């Protein structure tokens, strides 16, 4: 085999898989009944979700006094969680769209679950502003619709309205992108399904896909177009989220570096979450040959890069605040570092600036357990980044008389736990019913770095031909339905 | 009237590419090639035209951009003008973000809808042709036996050169 391996490229998928083996490996976990680990995981995540649902019901019926907000700090926990979850989603689009445009073919093993992660993260994110409205049953007021109040239209100059459009579009396009990618895999599942129920269900969702090259050609075009559309979209989403803050006059919010700073932070936290999930998925579903150490290394490298950008943004922010000569701006940053919430600032710095530096070492990048721990630390750090930016800036504004502190209530904490519960519940359900790896795309990269090895052959390295022609000479033999 | 089709199965990517090219050169009418994944270069081997979907995408993008920009100007400056902080009523720069989002939304949804329509894919549809293992690991070349001069044996011989694993003839199912 050794002579068949390209010197320049190492195979993306290990284990010399054939196309049929890929189908089996990805689909068999769906045939098996869920194991104890799955039941345990879903029990935990559903309990977390239920706790969140109860907390939301309680705060809706009691009122927004159940939150720790006060006159000074009007945005805190809900908005922090919203920005955190939206950021998590960005890695999925980055993997599915931007890495696709850059021809990073290793993405095929992780893009399906990363895209699903995007959708679930956006669902979690979208819930928070709606809760935060206080009267969520009037949430539809942010949508422009003909009404009997004039009609009075929404204010299109408001970043909050931009946000609604950005999140709405982002969710819709991510969902469509993900579904289009799933269609060929639904067909694979349909054709191998044994039970009638599965065959009908997968058949329904496969849209009658038959693998025709004419359709594949259009499919590839659509995929490219969607990737091209999703790339600026993902940049726009977190840019607009950052404008929610940057267009205000609060010291610590009112700065022009917010858009790139937020986008880099989003990708940084998103990749940390992808790593957390992938490391669990590959060991639970035995996908070690698909999500290889190479994948973990590549994602770690993206974390180093985006973590570097985030670290630079922290320093730029500091420098600009001192250079500005504006005492309110200076105070905002001194307060972050040394004020009553200094602990949050230093958690943020140690998790987001120090943690990724460990990933410079190849030994650490290839140590799955260590990468897993680091990825969780980064997630914690990025949550604190949003808390630092949003909440600390508000606690100390222009007038010392109006300063106030903020602490989350148990209800708010339960809501955050609930959002994690929702996220993991959705992910676990996905893992039971849909292929976690894009079967069609992985088959396309099997030959990568495996020159001269025939990936579809019956025997390994099957250069031998298998010839079983059907007797045709007798004339009419067709009509095999 | 249903046509008779000649179907040959292959297991290697190079073989299906080679046989498609050869069949086209020898003047066979290729109905379609069915593959488990997008085999690159196969569309060229079949002589397919480039997809015109990008134009549809552009059309929808322009439609979305114009419609949304018009809508924002109409609602903010004409239908019910509201003075917000003394800003101009038609404050175009502030309308850019939402216009961009709607452009992307229209372009994306329009392209996917057009793709499903052109490829005749819809929820619950049964595949018109189904070939054994073609969504798993086999490639199927489908030729049309368009006249009496079509010789299945000759076609089978051509396919054999490319390590064909199975051939069959079937009647085209009515669509």
Strand order of the largest sheet of chain B: 2-3-1-4
Structural class of chain B: alpha+beta
CATH architecture of chain A: Up-down Bundle
Number of discrete domains of chain B: 2
Continuous helix count of chain A? 15
Largest interface: A-B, 86 and 84 residues
* Dominant shape of chain B: rod-shaped
Radius of gyration of chain A, CA atoms, in whole angstroms = 25 Å
Name of the CATH class of the largest domain in chain B: Alpha Beta
- Going by CATH, the architecture of the largest domain in chain B would be 2-Layer Sandwich
Terminal CA distance of chain A reads 41 Å
- From the N-terminal CA to the C-terminal CA of chain B, the straight-line distance is 11 Å
β-strand amount of chain A? under 5%
Number of strands of chain A: 0
Tell me the helix content of chain B: 40-55%
What's the number of structural domains of chain A? 1
Account of the protein in words:
The complex is a heterodimer of chains A (about 475) and B (about 180). With about 475 residues, chain A is mainly alpha-helical. Chain A has one domain (about 10-445): Formate dehydrogenase/DMSO reductase domain (Formate dehydrogenase/DMSO reductase fold). Chain A has helices spanning about 20-30, 35-60, 75-100, 110-130, 160-190, 195-205, 215-245, 260-285, 295-325, 325-340, 340-355, 360-365, 370-395, 410-435, 440-445. The longest helix of chain A has about 35 residues, at about 160-190. The radius of gyration of chain A is 25 Å and the shape is globular. The relative contact order of chain A is 0.18. With about 180 residues, chain B is α+β, with helices and mostly antiparallel strands. Chain B has two domains: about 5-50 and about 140-170, 2-Layer Sandwich (Alpha-Beta Plaits); about 55-120, no CATH class. In chain B, strands 2-3-1-4 form a four-stranded antiparallel beta sheet, with helices on one face. The mean pLDDT of chain B is about 85. At the A-B interface, helix 1, helix 5, helix 6, helix 7 and helix 15 of A face strand 2, helix 2, helix 3, helix 4 and helix 5 of B.
């Amino acid at each position: 085999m050794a002579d068949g391996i390209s010197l320049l490229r190492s195979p993306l998928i290990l284990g010399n898989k054939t196309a049929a083996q890929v189908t089996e490996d990805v689909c068999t976990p769906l045939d098996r009944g869920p194991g104890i680990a799955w039941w345990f995981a879903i029990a935990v995540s559903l309990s977390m979700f239920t706790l969140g649902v109860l907390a939301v019901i309680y705060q809706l019926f009691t009122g927004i006094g159940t939150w720790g907000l006060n006159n000074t700090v009007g945005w805190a926990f809900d908005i922090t969680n919203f920005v955190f979850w939206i950021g998590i989603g960005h890695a999925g689009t980055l993997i599915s769209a931007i890495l696709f445009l850059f021809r990073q073919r290793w993405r095929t093993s992780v893009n399906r679950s990363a895209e699903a992660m995007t959708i679930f993260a956006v669902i979690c994110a979208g819930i928070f502003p709606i809760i935060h409205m206080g009267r969520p049953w009037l949430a539809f007021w942010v949508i422009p619709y003909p009404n009997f109040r004039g009609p009075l239209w929404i204010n299109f100059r408001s970043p909050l309205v931009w946000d609604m459009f950005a999140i709405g579009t982002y969710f819709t396009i991510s969902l469509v992108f993900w579904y289009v990618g799933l269609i060929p895999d639904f067909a694979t599942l349909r054709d191998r399904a044994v039970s009638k129920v599965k065959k009908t269900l997968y058949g329904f969702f496969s849209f009658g896909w038959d693998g025709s090259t004419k359709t594949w050609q259009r499919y590839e075009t659509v995929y490219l177009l969607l990737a091209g559309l999703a790339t600026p979209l993902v940049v726009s989403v977190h840019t607009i989220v950052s404008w929610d803050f940057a267009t205000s006059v609060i010291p610590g919010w009112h700065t022009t570096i917010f858009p790139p700073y937020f986008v880099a932070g989003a990708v940084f936290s998103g990749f940390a979450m992808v790593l957390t999930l992938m490391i669990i998925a590959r060991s639970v579903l035995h996908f070690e040959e698909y999500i290889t150490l190479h994948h973990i290394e590549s994602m770690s490298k993206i974390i180093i890069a985006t973590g570097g950008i985030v670290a630079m943004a922290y320093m730029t922010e500091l420098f600009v605040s001192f250079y500005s000569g504006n005492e309110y701006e200076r105070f905002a940053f001194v307060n972050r570092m040394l004020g009553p919430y200094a602990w949050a600032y230093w958690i943020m710095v140690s998790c987001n600036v120090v943690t990724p530096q460990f990933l410079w070492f190849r030994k650490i990048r290839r140590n799955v357990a260590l990468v897993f721990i680091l990825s969780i630390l980064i997630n914690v750090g990025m949550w604190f980044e949003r808390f630092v930016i949003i909440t600390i800036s508000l606690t100390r504004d222009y007038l010392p008389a109006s300063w106030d502190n903020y602490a989350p209530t148990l209800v708010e904490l339960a809501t955050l736990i609930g959002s994690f519960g929702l996220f993991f519940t959705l992910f676990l359900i996905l893992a039971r019913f849909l292929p976690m790896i894009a079967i069609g795309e992985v088959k396309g990269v099997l030959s990568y770095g495996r020159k001269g090895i025939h990936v579809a052959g019956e025997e390994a390295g099957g250069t031998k031909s298998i010839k079983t022609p059907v007797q045709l000479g007798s004339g009419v033999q067709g009509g095999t339905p | 009237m249903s046509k008779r089709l000649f179907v040959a199965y292959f297991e290697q990517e190079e073989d299906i590419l080679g046989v498609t090219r050869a069949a086209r050169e020898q003047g066979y009418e290729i109905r379609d090639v069915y593959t488990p994944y997008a085999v690159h270069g196969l569309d060229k081997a079949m002589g397919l035209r480039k997809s015109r979907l990008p134009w549809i995408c552009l059309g929808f993008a322009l439609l979305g951009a114009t419609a949304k920009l018009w809508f924002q100007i109409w609602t903010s400056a004409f239908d019910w003008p509201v003075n917000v902080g003394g800003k101009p009523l038609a404050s175009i720069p502030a309308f850019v973000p939402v216009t961009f989002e709607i452009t992307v939304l229209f372009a994306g949804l329009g392209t996917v809808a057009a793709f499903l329509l052109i490829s005749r894919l819809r929820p619950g549809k049964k595949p018109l042709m189904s070939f054994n293992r073609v969504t798993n690991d086999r490639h199927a070349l489908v030729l049309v036996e368009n006249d009496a001069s079509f010789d299945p044996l000759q076609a089978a011989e051509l396919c054999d050169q490319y390590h064909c694993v199975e051939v069959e003839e079937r009647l085209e199912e009515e669509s």
